[in-house]
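Internal tracking record. Fields below are filled automatically when a chain is submitted to the structure queue. Please do not edit lines marked as system-generated. If the sequence contains nonstandard residues, flag them in the REMARKS field before resubmitting.
Queue: standard
Priority: normal
Entity type: single polypeptide chain
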Amino acid sequence: MANVTRAKVYLLVGTHKGAFMFTSDSGRKNWEMQGPFLKGADVNHVVLDARGDPTIFACVNSYWWGPNFRISRDFGLTWQETESGIRFEEGSDNTVKRVWCAAPSLPTEPNVIYVGVDPGALFKSEDGGRTWKDVKGLTSHSTRDKWAPGGGGLMVHSICFDPEDSKKMSVGISAAGVFHTTDGGGTWEARNKGVRADFLRETFPEVGQCVHHMESHPTKPDVLYQQNHCGVYRSDDRGKTWVDISEGLPSRFGFPIQIHPHDPNTVYVIPEESAEFRCPVNGEFGVYRSRDRGERWEKLVNGLPNHNAYIHVHRQAMAIDACDPCGIYIGTSGGQILYSRKEGDSWEELVDWLPPVYSLSCTVLL
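SYSTEM-GENERATED OUTPUT FOLLOWS
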């Protein structure tokens, strides 16, 4: 647990108009803001890689120059582009439309990074982000003709690693479902048993489910949680089967989901009314917490706008730090960042008037 007083907390923010960085000590009361970085670009996701010298990775989507990946080794002062770009091989029928998320691999692979893209593909770099190759086992999956774009497109947006074996990983794809590999991406197995797809003719298909966000816990890699278009689910066997844990929530629909960093039994979600009205139910914004793996849910509202709060939280716009007690961060489409230093029991406003927030990620450095 990161509870050392000299720890420094970094909150990385991806927005519609660039990236921002907020820093604080472990008390997380006073924050310093830097940015905007990468002005003029949609920054879909930005993360701090702490496996070696701290390095920031950003998934950048420019109206003029298209999608790309940027790297900063001086905390945002300067940025470098990739050498090869993120694109399919010449002759492919696919075109990268948007770079959605970045996921540094395990510490045992310090130069390996993955990114998820639209159209439903995964790219891998083995040289710290300089060059990229398509993970063809996923792109050419035998069920691909059954995948379809969701409201935001057809994209890999969630990447979960096995902390003990870099060849094992799961990805969440909207709208295709969860897929798992045990051989480093050579082959992939669809793992969606028990997950609904109410918008399809077949309610429980092999593939076609619309995963909104998926997370795993580093101490229990067998356990996965996902917020889906059609409910909240938990798997205890790396996605082979899923249990519906939506009962007790005001809606089955929502986007972000996060797991407590020190307690894999505690999970947080933010329900929204429906696909047609992506706002809190009855305008009552709240974070729901379960301490027992989704058996029971409690609504957390102390300090949150709980009346006429018609705000939206994107799938990657909730993050948790590793302090003790842990901090939870929420970014809204209205440009606010709300956070709790008390594991959700009470909330404060960190900042207002940012551009629409796409993503948050948090890293604690000692």
